[in-house]
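Re: beginner question about structure tokens

> Can someone show what the tokenized structure looks like for a real chain? I only ever see the sequence side.

Sure, here's an example I had lying around. Input first:
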Amino acid sequence: MGKSKDTSTKRAQIAILYEQNMSHSEIARRLHIAKLTVTRAITRINELKSYRSRRRSGRPCITSPHTDRKVCRVATVQPTWSLTQIASHARSKLSGGRTVRRLF
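And the corresponding structure tokens:
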């Protein structure tokens, strides 16, 4: 089925029902989700003391916010330039078109 877009709201609902001494099975039935989802959500809430998701680790950025603004400025002033031209004009460690494309 896939993940819900608003998981923090769902976790909040789970926490409220759990605080009302409902069982995991009852919460799962009421919210139409799997019992394992309820168990994981309650564990996460107890660990993090929050309904929000953990910060994802992902690949670190190779550009600074200053470079990002510079690239955007060049791209808006010179809309006919290729991505490689924009990257070379920014005079930074940009690898080429992919990094420039990511900024838009």
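Each token stands for a local structural state, so reading them left to right follows the chain. The chain has six helices and no strands.
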